[in-house]
Amino acid sequence: xxxxxxxxxxxxxxxxxxxxxxxxxxxxxxxxxxxxxxxxxxxxxxxxxxxxxxxxxxxxxxxxxxxxxxxxxxxxxxxxxxxxxxxxxxxxxxxxxxxxxxxxxxxxxxxxxxxxxxxxxxxxxxxxxxxxxxxxxxxxxxxxxxxxxxxxxxxxxxxxxxxxxxxxxxxxxxxxxxxxxxxxxxxxxxxxxxxxxxxxxxxxxxxxxxxxxxxxxxxxxxxxxxxxxxxxxxxxxxxxxxxxxxxxxxxxxxxxxxx
Length: 259
Hints:
Elements: E1 9-12, H1 18-29, E2 33-38, H2 41-55, E3 59-63, H3 69-78, E4 84-87, H4 102-130, E5 133-138, H5 151-171, E6 176-183, H6 189-202, H7 206-214, H8 225-235, E7 247-250
Helix pairs in contact: 1-2, 1-8, 4-5, 6-7
């Protein structure tokens, strides 16, 4: 299927690895030129080189912390008027909410709610003016089924979800869609850290920890960044213009509810 977005430009955050890289690679495969952002310059440049070699599209890099005003300014200087914006940032740490400080909450809100909103604010008017725009926020399956130890993430990402629900209806007539992708368990570096912590806490091997978690997924496996990226590319395509304000849960069937 031709996604109809060749020649467009996308700003993709946290794109050096994991789900962000999956989205960048899938968009590049559709002929979309990229500005990719991540904190570690060496990893970011290696990813950019790999994508250029695979797809031949233009790939610019901005090594920065997108959760800071300085980082956002640098990213927007490199890509002030993207046709596609993919918001992504690492989630806050787990823990007992009783031990979270005010500063912990502010950091979570800055990274997982206010940063996406700021990037949307800076780019959406151009999208509306040109009659086309795609905004995809990578959030978490915890928005749909909250996880008790992820209080910071539950709160911050749910705040973004509520904001998007209102905004998406305002810009739909302009040809701009705003949607959220909610990943479950994907085989990325982040989940590897989780398994390591789980293994130590239960005094089991990392492989046993992986098997325990995999057994909870109806699909019988973890997701891949490639299939996640392809879902993102479809939401960014011309074929998805009638999909907006939605929360796409991609979790291999783990969520047990009907709605």
